[in-house]
# Entry
Amino acid sequence: MTAANLKLSNQATLLTRQEGDLAAQSKQLRRIAELAHVDPSKSAKDIADQVARLLTPPVIQVGAEKSFYIPNEPCVVIVEPPKNANETTNLFLPSDPTSGLKIDVRVVQRTVLDSPIRHITIHGNGREINGYPVAYMLTPGGALSFVFDGTQWSSGGNP
# Structure
């Protein structure tokens, strides 16, 4: 076998392996689509895009409002703290969450001089949070994650 033929043979072998890898990846992606209830007849790119949207929670930005009701879906809530130290922003977790629902709450730190007494109160909305009806965030730049276990919300992070 000449060097040119050997090179072509190696390239053909490599292409065959790549096609096999692509076929395996395509099969795996279609299985993921079925599990995520995405139409498996779509192209691999469409399936990947739809699954990525399902796996990436939406980001909700909340201004320095008095009250905000968090939707009943996994999400990241970015909150601007109240502008005045004597004000409180109230966030309400979903009242009818499904078990395993996760919500992340993050507080924007406007300046280094932000006072930690700018309150953000997270209400369990009829469900307890670590055994209490509310949780407090007092730290600018703080973050908490809330996960519903079927009975109550559990939280952890840097309040």
Q: What stands out?
A: The chain is about 30% helix and 30% strand.
